[in-house]
Specification:
Blueprint lengths: L5 E3 L2 E3 L6 E6 L4 E7 L3 H19 L3 H17 L1 H12 L3 H22 L7 E4 L4 E9 L2 E5 L5 H14 L3 E5 L6 H13 L6 E3 L4 H10 L5 E5 L2 H11 L5 E5 L5 E4 L5 H13 L11 E5 H16 L19 H16 L3 E4 L3 E4 L2 E7 L2 E4 L6 H4 L6 E7 L2 H9 L3 E2 L1 E5 L3 H10 L4 E4 L14 E2 L2 E2 L4 H7 L1 E9 L1
Parallel strand pairs: 7-8, 7-10, 8-9, 10-11, 12-13, 12-20, 13-18, 17-18, 20-21
Antiparallel strand pairs: 1-2, 3-4, 5-6, 6-24, 11-23, 14-17, 15-16, 19-22
The chain binds nicotinamide-adenine-dinucleotide.
Length: 480
């Protein structure tokens, strides 16, 4: 059994109440370890450790903070294989994906913010004629919370933790209870890198209890959350009366808009990836595909052929393109949407069924599924499914597709395939999304703002936006 413990004040500890939950391996449906089901007492201990570390950490030089963050990054890289295997076992994603994307990007998060903090300048204004100068201090907030989901476990966990500690805060962090393993392993790495005790505290447990105790904590002044829209709304309600600072990265139902004048092969290959990478469990996946009528039939044939060729299999196998979904309840939820599509007159062009992978028959495998929908208002086109399921439908004009693309409650990302510059400019200005990719998908530059509008969230992560979130601006006005 691979059991997990809380990481509080630099040491690994059992939950105070000694309650534990099972941790499942999605590739075979078996329990392979125990996770703490932490309570308010554990959150209090984590808070106290963070609070007592804050004074010294917030006064630690930027060079020293930077050095430690970069050391964490190097140690993650040195442990790439171990972390990638652990991520895959916990989450069901192919090891190859965790090794190529998740873990390297987690390492990049520490390296990036380790460097960015040394470049984080603030404003000053000379008040001409008034003999005064104003400058802005960017001060760490204190103890902050980072709460993350299961789909990109270490990658999104560190996307919050790295800027939080770089900016001089101390952290109480909770990974998803569904995928806690790499967050647990991160504790060891932080100790080895020399991160002072209490700067980062990682506690495990359910959202409704452990997570709830974190968000209700009076003295945790900011919450950076990534997860579902309903959870985000709940956190906002709890946090508002305490005036906590909030960054909410929530769900998405992103349009992938394909015009006939695009580079067809590149679009086709990328569309397969943007539909099914990580079993479609990425908030940025282009789950609604709109194709210009002129090339719709051609696209439909080519896309379905490529999707059918994707290999569903055990995540550790090199040939696997699609691993296991994260959990049994999630698999059931996704299957339910496939049934809903049928009742809404959707046509299943391929997939739609569970897959029994030989030797791993109890794993949570599902065929990549393409649904042709009769209109854009059906539920499968409006609600976030968050699995290997995409919808496709044709459009005639730019205005028509823009209307459909924007007609959802979400506004995270949008992808546009065209070689027409004027159209690119018009559409990217009008698409309701925090991120627009043109002729590419999920290309990331960590300096850029990341986040959504509408029900996809509030605030931005990435680059200096993240450092701004994790600091308070204080204006100092000096008359001379
Ligand atoms: P979730 O909202 O169920 O859980 C996310 C985290 O919040 C978990 O750690 C969970 O334990 C915790 N949590 C749940 N209830 C809580 C409460 N009452 N108080 C405090 N914490 C609580 O989301 P999930 O199912 O883990 O993740 C999937 C969702 O995340 C999808 O909607 C997806 O779109 C979204 N997501 C968004 C982004 C983004 O950047 N916008 C990135 C990845 C995933």
């Amino acid at each position: 059994m691979e059991n997990i413990k809380n990481y509080i004040n630099g040491t690994f500890s059992s939950p105070v109440n000694n309650n534990w939950m099972d941790n499942y391996n999605p590739s075979n449906g078996e329990v392979y370890g125990k996770i703490p089901e932490s309570s308010k007492e554990d959150v209090d201990l984590a808070y106290k450790a963070a609070k007592s570390a804050f004074k010294q950490w917030s006064q630690t030089t930027l060079e020293e903070r930077s050095r430690i963050l970069i050391k964490i990054s190097e140690l993650l890289e040195a442990n790439l294989q171990r972390f990638a295997e652990a991520e895959s076992k916990d989450n069901g994603k192919p090891v190859s994906l965790a090794k190529a994307v998740d873990i390297p990007r987690a390492a990049s998060n520490f390296r990036f913010f380790g460097n960015a903090i040394t470049q984080f300048a603030s404003e000053s204004h000379e008040s001409i004629g008034q003999q005064a100068v104003n400058y802005t201090l960017r001060q760490p907030i204190g103890v902050v919370a980072c709460i993350s989901p299961w789909n990109l476990p270490l990658y999104l966990f560190t996307w919050k933790i790295a800027p939080a500690i770089a900016a001089g805060n101390c952290v109480v962090a909770k990974p998803s209870e569904v995928t806690p393993m790499t967050a647990y392993l991160l504790g060891e790495i932080c100790n080895e890198a020399g991160l002072p005790k209490g700067v980062l505290n990682i506690i495990h447990g359910l959202g409704g209890t452990t997570g709830q105790a974190i968000i209700e904590h009076q003295d945790i002044k900011a919450i950076s959350f990534t997860g579902g829209t309903a959870t985000g709304a709940h956190i906002a309600r709890v946090a508002a009366p305490m005036f906590k600072k909030l960054s909410l990265e929530l769900g998405g139902k992103n349009p992938n808009i394909i015009f006939a004048d695009c580079d067809y092969q590149e679009m086709l290959n990328t569309t397969v990836r943007s539909s099914f990478a990580n079993q479609g469990q990425i908030c940025l996946c282009g789950s609604r595909i709109f194709v210009e009528e002129k090339i719709y039939q051609q696209f439909k044939t080519d896309f379905v052929t490529k999707v059918k060729a994707l290999k569903v299999g055990h995540p550790a196998k090199q040939a696997t393109n699609i691993g296991a979904l994260v959990s049994k309840p999630h698999l059931e939820k996704v299957k339910e949407y496939i049934e809903i599509a049928k009742t809404e007159n959707g046509t299943i062009l391929c997939g739609g069924n569970e897959v029994k992978v030989e030797g791993y028959e109890n794993g949570y495998y599902l065929e990549p599924t393409v649904i042709e929908v009769p209109n854009d208002e059906c539920r499968v086109n409006q609600e976030e499914i968050f699995g290997p399921v995409v919808t496709i439908m044709p459009f005639k004009t730019e205005d028509e597709v823009l209307l459909m693309a924007n007609k959802v409650k979400y506004g995270l990302s949008a992808t546009l395939w065209t070689n027409n510059l004027k159209r690119t400019m018009r559409m990217s200005n009008q698409l309701q999304a925090g991120i627009v990719w043109v002729n590419t998908w999920m290309m990331r530059d960590l300096r850029t703002p990341f986040g959504g509008i509408k029900a996809s969230g509030v605030g931005r992560e990435g680059g200096f936006e993240a450092l701004r979130f994790f600091t308070e601006a204080k204006n100092v006005c000096i008359k001379y």
